[in-house]
């Protein structure tokens, strides 16, 4: 992959939830790039995780190892999620916007699991959130996401650097709003269905209700599977499988 710079800054949450349609088909990337390595029709040359490892080396320091864990976790999304299944089952166009929406959901699932590691019980009926390793890994996952997004946008044919930066900013606003909506949906299926409807279909009246129901069932099932991973494995050996949307 072309040189990637990781930007630790996480853009602030904006209240607006405008849907920006980056409906550009992803098959227009040049053959030269496609012959290297492809994720959902958007190509990259090499793993940016490997680039990072080569740069910092294997330093036996907990924060460095946790940072690598965050980057590996993010990479499991574009590498292991079956995007074609999502596009086909949910009747989504094969565009960058659809790729980002599916990726965003899987990233959120990772964030939910890792943020839960920082919740501490202070009494039988009260819990307190303290920023710790879970929060740190969360930030690393998000850093990796935006590094990947920035490079994918650059690889789209005819992408203008100025426009690309604007698109990343717009996507960040959507991302932050989506995280809030999904978080609220954890308490009730009806609220989660509303969040999915808004994010995946922009509140379109033409969407099939069973498509939204499938995503909600997938979310509940995947959250349950991630909860089974022990705290120790989450830090150093996070090994899990992304469930198929076709099974929901």
Automatic annotation (TrEMBL):
<protein>
    <recommendedName>
        <fullName>Ubiquinol-cytochrome c chaperone domain-containing protein</fullName>
    </recommendedName>
</protein>
<feature type="domain" description="Ubiquinol-cytochrome c chaperone">
    <location>
        <begin position="88"/>
        <end position="234"/>
    </location>
</feature>
<comment type="similarity">
    <text>Belongs to the CBP3 family.</text>
</comment>
<dbReference type="GO" id="GO:0034551">
    <property type="term" value="P:mitochondrial respiratory chain complex III assembly"/>
</dbReference>
<dbReference type="Pfam" id="PF03981">
    <property type="entry name" value="Ubiq_cyt_C_chap"/>
</dbReference>
<dbReference type="InterPro" id="IPR021150">
    <property type="entry name" value="Ubiq_cyt_c_chap"/>
</dbReference>
<dbReference type="InterPro" id="IPR007129">
    <property type="entry name" value="Ubiqinol_cyt_c_chaperone_CPB3"/>
</dbReference>
<dbReference type="GO" id="GO:0005739">
    <property type="term" value="C:mitochondrion"/>
</dbReference>
């Amino acid at each position: 992959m072309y040189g990637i710079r990781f930007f630790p800054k996480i853009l602030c949450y904006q209240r607006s939830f405008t849907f920006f349609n980056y409906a550009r088909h992803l098959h227009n990337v040049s053959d030269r790039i496609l012959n290297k390595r492809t994720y959902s029709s958007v190509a990259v040359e090499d793993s940016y995780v490997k680039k990072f490892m080569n740069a910092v080396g294997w330093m036996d320091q907990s924060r460095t190892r946790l940072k690598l864990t965050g980057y590996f976790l993010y990479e499991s999304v574009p590498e292991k999620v079956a995007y074609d299944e999502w596009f086909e089952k949910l009747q989504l166009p094969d565009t960058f916007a659809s790729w980002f929406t599916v990726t965003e959901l899987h990233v959120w699932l990772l964030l939910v699991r890792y943020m839960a590691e920082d919740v501490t019980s202070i009494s039988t009926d009260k819990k307190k959130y303290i920023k710790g390793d879970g929060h740190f890994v969360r930030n690393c996952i998000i850093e990796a996401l935006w590094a990947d997004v920035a490079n994918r946008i650059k690889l789209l044919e005819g992408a203008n650097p100025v426009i690309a930066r604007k698109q990343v900013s717009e996507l960040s606003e959507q991302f932050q709003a989506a995280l809030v909506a999904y978080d609220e949906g954890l308490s009730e299926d009806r609220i989660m269905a509303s969040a999915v409807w808004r994010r995946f279909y922009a509140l379109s009246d033409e969407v099939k209700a069973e498509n939204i129901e499938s995503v909600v069932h997938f979310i509940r099932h995947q959250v349950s599977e991630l909860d089974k991973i022990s705290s120790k494995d989450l830090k150093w050996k996070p090994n899990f499988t992304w469930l198929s949307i076709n099974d929901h």
